[in-house]
Write a structure and sequence with these properties.
The complex is a heterodimer of chains A (about 210) and B (about 160). By secondary structure, chain A is mainly alpha-helical. Chain A is built from six helices and no strands. In chain A, helix 3 packs antiparallel against helix 5, helix 4 packs antiparallel against helix 6 and helix 5 packs antiparallel against helix 6. In chain B, helix 1 runs antiparallel to helix 2 and helix 6 crosses helix 8. The radius of gyration of chain B is 17 Å and the shape is globular. The interface between A and B is large, with 64 and 85 residues.
């Protein structure tokens, strides 16, 4: 069986597959596009709303709290929230990727993206968990100084932080590492193609090897 | 790009490439997942058109988007089934199995036996893209495309003998 013999089969297969359902899927895609764009905007907006909520909740205590420990806690929480927002913005979250590059460049970009995600999740302890955890513990200590409940609440925060950290490491192992390996494999395959020697005249069995006339 | 222009260009692209997109989706996903992948390809085409700068032909541009979407689709786990109309779920019964079509079965089996990269090259070759166009889409040299296609041809000849 020669590859050129399958061209007709392939074209026939395309006709079989491209039935009226494609129209249905087109309608879904067009309506999803606006949904998609709205979702991204909502998500970006959601992060700002979360930041605004944190500020609204804690900012009053910055000026009205009796204890300076509480105020320090508030400052750490607010600074940490701003820092988290900055890191998320830097990581490119919410940016829509467009798949119109060459396959090679697309794989390179996807690999960079995955590596960035892996770095973020592996380091989530210091840029996400620690600022909020430390801030909340200081805040609670300021509110309930010398109270056994304070330690219980802080213990809960620490446990929560550890759980969030564990979840993210699991995501790295189960999802991101295999994804990175896949893209590395694809890139190696493409690069090995690119490094292959050009075919010599006379080796081909067909003068129209690449579909040209 | 204005919305109206985007819509008309999208319609034009779809008219010329609907079979191609469906074929690519079925080459990289099986059964009902192929519907999801096809929908994702269409979504990426639609989304990408907004920023299409016509630095390349629409034909190769579409191929890049479709292939990149398909190749990255396989590597995303835990996809949820999209909410498709009920008649859509009968799709597999109509076109998925290809019983009785030996060459179709052979083609599908052969495509499944290839790596993602080789599969992409073969799909473009079967669609009569020129070596230059294939190289542009893949991002490799034209000579490398020729070499690879030649090796895939040899592989098919050997493979179809052992498969019978």
């Amino acid at each position: 069986m020669k590859l050129d013999d399958l061209k007709t089969t392939w074209k026939q297969r395309q006709i079989e597959l491209a039935d009226h359902r494609v129209d249905q899927l087109v309608q879904n895609a067009a309506s999803r596009s606006s949904w998609f764009e709205k979702t991204i905007k909502r998500r970006d907006l959601g992060e700002f709303v979360a930041l605004a909520v944190v500020f609204l909740l804690f900012l009053p205590d910055l000026f009205s709290a009796e204890s300076w420990v509480t105020r320090i806690g508030v400052m750490v929480i607010l600074a940490g929230s701003i820092f988290i927002g900055f890191v998320l913005y830097w990581s490119g979250r919410g940016k829509l990727s467009c798949n119109d590059q060459s396959v090679m460049n697309f794989c390179k970009e996807q690999l960079k993206r995955v590596n960035r995600q892996i770095w973020l999740l592996r380091n989530i302890a210091w840029w996400y968990i620690a600022p909020l955890l430390v801030g909340c513990c200081i805040y609670v200590h300021g509110l309930l100084p010398g109270n056994i409940l304070t330690w219980i609440i802080c213990g809960f925060f620490v446990a929560l932080g550890l759980f969030i950290y564990w979840l993210n490491q699991l995501a790295v192992q189960k999802r991101l590492i295999p994804l990175r390996e896949e893209f590395v494999g694809m890139l190696m395959e493409l690069e090995s193609m690119g490094n292959g020697e050009d075919i010599k005249i006379g080796e081909s069995d067909d003068s129209s090897e690449t579909g040209e006339g | 790009m204005k919305r109206q222009n985007q819509e008309s260009l999208f319609d034009e692209i779809l008219k010329l490439n609907r079979g191609r997109f469906a074929g690519i989706a079925h080459a990289y996903a099986s059964g009902s997942e192929a519907d999801d992948l096809l929908q994702e390809i269409l979504l990426q085409i639609w989304h990408g058109l907004a920023g299409f700068r016509q630095e390349s032909s629409v034909h190769t541009w579409c191929y890049r988007v479709a292939l990149n979407t398909a190749m990255s689709w396989r590597r995303k786990a835990g996809r949820k089934r999209k909410n498709l109309p009920s008649e859509a779920r009968d799709f597999d019964a109509v076109a998925g199995t290809a019983d009785g079509h030996d060459s179709t079965r052979l083609l599908e089996k052969f495509l499944q036996s290839l790596s993602s990269g080789d599969r992409a090259l073969v799909l473009m070759y079967l669609d009569d893209l020129s070596g230059k166009e294939i190289a542009e889409v893949a991002g490799i040299k034209e000579g490398a495309v020729r070499t690879r296609i030649h090796r895939i041809k040899k592989r098919l000849e050997d493979w179809s003998v052992t498969d019978e």
